[in-house]
Amino acid sequence: MPATDARITAVDTYDIRFPTSRALDGSDAMNPDPDYSAAYVVLRTDGGEPEGHGFAFTIGRGNDVQVAAVRALRDHVVGRSVAALCADPGTLYRDLTGDSQLRWLGPEKGVMHMAIGAVVNAVWDLAARRAGKPLWRLLADADPEWLTAQIDFRYLTDALTPDEALDLLRRGRKGAAERTGHLLADGYPAYTTSPGWLGYDDDKLARLAARAVADGFTQIKLKVGADLDDDIRRCRVARATVGPDIRLAADANQRWDVPEAIRWTGALAEFGLYWIEEPTSPDDVLGHAAVRRAVAPVKVATGEHAHNRVLFKQLLQAGAVDIVQIDAARVAGVNENLAILLLAAKFGVPVCPHAGGVGLCELVQHLAMFDYVALSGTTEDRVIEYVDHLHDHFTDPVVIRAGHYTAPTAPGFSAALRPASVARYTYPGGTFWAADAERTEGRTA
Length: 445
Fold this sequence. Notes:
The chain has 19 helices and 12 strands.
């Protein structure tokens, strides 16, 4: 049995980068050459306790800055009681977001906030491993009063009070056992962005779109926003390939001003767009509201770059969004995402999480599955994004069957990277990057 006096002994950090830009995987109108990366965190423990794993997702340069931000939090974590930390992760969440000198760098946004999310998610991974449950089940089984206590309601009570949150969670438990059975049997609906990266040619788009339909996906997404004529052609190829019954979504990755977003979305609407994602600046609440009014019945989806619970509150209050897209690694971890899920439930807006990247599919599936089992109680008009790369680097990778995420059964948050992948892709000294530097040096010599 783990020792009751076990402590966190270290917060180890790793700058992990994958060379995805070389095949244009992940390419979009705003980010043409991403190298998908993770500022990876491992909480070391003593006393026979498991480790905790988490990360912040970035796209290459700057991942070293993200790692440095995580390291700045070490003094708040090392020496903490493992038992106490797992019994109440909210205490650490509040300590990290409340450090006044580090908070000044946000507050509650940007690199420091993402670093907090990486550490907080690692604590939840530790708690779930310690409990012997996958995180979605740990959350779904948790007492509603305890879950409510994990949330910081500061700045939210004009839209969501603790009593309202508690009532939502209590009501969400009705039928939870039956929904757990459905989830384990059938999984959670997914859609795929794999065919739609902006750097792919039309043949690759068509081939991957046809494969997605054959694999059971009922929605695909294309990246748009660089050139309207190209987008019209690519949407025509996609629609001709998948037929009229598959949902087609588009993602502009923040590329447009508000009038441009309205005009461009209108030009693509003939292809039966289900939603337009991130049509303008992620911080522009009123701009999103204007776009939503103008482009209906095309839905507006956003949230992967919404930096905290307050921005989500404003998007919902302003009627600016049809689809809430949480991200597991953008805000300050599970605690803040619980607040966002509850806000979405209060306003009756479906949540379709952002994924892809490095490990985002692995993480966010747990949040969506908790939402289904113990909060919203439905998967109607709800899908989790799926991208089919980099999963093999994780010890508990996602499993997709017939266009659905299979519910994880291994304990934890599915965040642990394989040691061999850490050794190979740590930047700049990992075996891949060291050999790459030698090859580059040889070509320029």
